[in-house]
Design brief:
The chain is of the alpha/beta class. The chain has four helices and five strands. It has one domain: Transcription Regulator spoIIAA, CATH 3.30.750. It is globular, with a radius of gyration of 15 Å.
């Protein structure tokens, strides 16, 4: 049985999948994003793919907390955020300006193929940086 504030985190390097299972309040969002940062601890660069299973960030406070965390993720190696809108976050449109000003690429869509292409492009950039670093070391 799920209780308020439940989420799951999966890692398939360099992508971290964040899956809020229930509505997350401000404290839950703090725990959720800290768990994502902890999961990314061993990676220099990574991508966040969020797939909320509920209307996880439908309040203004939750969306503002989410934006605050989105701003901070780049400081921990996050190179982009993909958000699946199939189940949630109608208010994301109201925050379009703030999302456009994030220090990292962000996209939100109901189209899983579009999100997969976005993530693949970011993974390619990470792979190219890794290749460049390795080729400079030889």
């Amino acid at each position: 049985m799920q209780s308020e504030g439940d989420f799951e985190i999966y890692v398939k390097s360099p992508v971290i999948y964040g899956i809020p299972l229930t509505t997350l309040d401000s404290n839950d969002l703090d725990r959720y994003y800290q768990a994502i940062i902890d999961a990314a601890d061993s990676m220099d660069q990574w991508i966040l793919f969020e797939n909320p299973q509920t209307n996880a960030a439908t309040t203004n406070i939750a969306m503002e907390t989410t934006l605050k965390h989105y701003q901070q993720l780049s400081l921990h190696g996050c190179t982009g955020i993909a958000l699946l809108l199939a189940n949630a976050i109608a208010r994301v449109v109201r925050y379009e300006k703030e999302l456009a000003n994030l220090p990292i690429p962000f996209t939100a869509s109901k189209n899983q193929i579009e999100l997969a292409r976005f993530v693949e492009g970011l993974v390619d950039k990470i792979d190219q940086k890794t290749l460049t670093i390795h080729s400079n070391a030889s």
